[in-house]
Amino acid sequence: MNRRSAQAFALGLLLAAVFIWAGNSVIAEKESGRKLTLSDAKRHLEDNGYHVISSSEFSKLTAKEDPVKKEQPSATAGTKAPGSTLQKEQEKAESEKKFTLIIVSGMTPKDVAAMLQSNGIIADAAAFERYLIDNNFHTKIQIGSYVLTNSMDFNQIAKIIT
């Protein structure tokens, strides 16, 4: 590269930087002129079907729901017979969460782990991703749909999806 082409390249970089700076300055000035007020935000939310309530109203609503939730466990606790394995098994079956994982082309182990965590199948997405990588499952993930439950461990899930 000779001196003339190096100078032309430098001039091109300089002009590109000036255009980018000027564009950002103009855009930033136009956006700062439009301020969103609290009343505008409330009106926008109400127009889209949301209900806007104050924090005191929200705390009153949640306080009304809490006694109902507290009464239900105490009522069921008195009806349980000690050592009743049938009821325990039914509760375990009810608490078991099923999820159909659909893996499509291009999904990474991180995507799979995030989906499983967001649906309550695993507790820690990073730990599951690390497990897949450490045990060489990350290269064997197959496209398809898989039914998984929250009672499965990492090894069972990994064997199903590979």
Automatic annotation (TrEMBL):
Bias (Basic and acidic residues): 63-72
Region (Disordered): 63-95
Polar residues biased stretches: 73-86
Superkingdom to which the source organism belongs: Bacteria
UniProt protein name: Endolytic transglycosylase MltG
